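User: Can you model how glutamic acid sits in this protein?
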Amino acid sequence: MKLAQRVVRVKPSATLTINAKAKALKAKGIQVVNFGVGEPDFDTPQYIQDAGVKAILGGQTRYTAVGGTDELKDAICKSIQNDYGLSYSRENVLVSCGGKHALYNLFQALLDSGDEVIIPSPYWVSYPDMVALADAVPVHVPCRVENSFKMLPEQLEAAITPKTRMLIMNSPSNPTGVHYSRADLKALAEVLVRHEDIVIVSDDIYNRILFGGCEWVNLPMVEPKLKERTFILNGVSKTYCMTGWRIGYILGDADVIKAAVKIQGQSTSNPNSIAQYASAAALGGDQALVKELSDTFEKRCRYVVDRLTQMPGVSCPMPQGAFYVFPNVSAHYGKKAGDRKVTNSLEMADYLMEAAHVAVVPGSAFGEDRCIRLSYALSMDDLKEGFDRIARALSALV
Ligand code: PMP
Ligand code: GLU
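Assistant: Here's the modeled complex, given as structure tokens:
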């Protein structure tokens, strides 16, 4: 049957595809080490689970307001005030079925055919396709490993055209783990204040998973003039180990939020009522658990980078947050294991899956074919086993 052009334009999510492949092999009894999908390996903390159960038993099981309950919006505004020192009220908040859905709604509300959206590359897999789904045009800015994969102000300036409508920032970054410092952001903000029509999306979904005492900052925090045209994206998936609950949110200009609520009202309606209730408990509860989570990822990160950099032909910048590494493995491209040749990141990911039963995501899905992405949200035992397998598989390539 003929499909709409819209769907023909987009690719399936590479991260979710790899996860499905890894799960299918596991179902066949194969012990796959899954560095593929990015989600914390811990259960949702007990106090949040309890809130979910209480919501069900207490009858919080009906439709809510389309854009989220007042209780959750208040908890979101309070948590943003604490973390960012920025004030928002209920009319500035849209709660959706995950951060991904909040972004989708925002793009649908803001982007028109032909609008250009600047995306520093490497980027999270879904940005270009979500932009394409809104008929807009992704403009990739290739960021060099020598600059820690950060976009420089002159690169931003050069990418801006009369058609530029939006810039997407993601720090700490998926896939590189890179975090933009106050100075980095100030330099970018200097460019952005001169281009008043550009809307900024600050994807801060990993802002609480930051290492080495890094200071948490984003564009509107360093340049208050940018606040009114910035949309902040965050959610509970990563911070509170709630990926399956599907709650994410954006904060920004009230009129645009209203427009995005209209789109949500004609598609999914409100996000799950029980998950909203539990998310309010998550944001209002004991935040010491978040620090513990971040410390755990930091410890693992050191181990992961240590293991990777000991492998011949592998280099890897040190992440400052999130739970991903993005090693360059291209020194192995062109080599063979038996009659199997590996020439790019997709073939490398396939080779590791088949020869070592290790799931990784090809860097090409993030705009950098020299690299592969590994999520280290795995137990130390699995990490050790996974890196032993990768080391063996890479040394078999000659
Ligand atoms: N932004 C980035 C950079 C991500 O890695 C994710 C994880 N999928 C999201 C947004 C959205 O996460 P979720 O839909 O689970 O809230
Ligand atoms: N953000 C995660 C990842 O990049 C989850 C998968 C997804 O939503 O694409 O692996």
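A couple of observations from the model: The mean pLDDT is 96. The chain has 14 helices and 14 strands.
User: Helpful, thanks.
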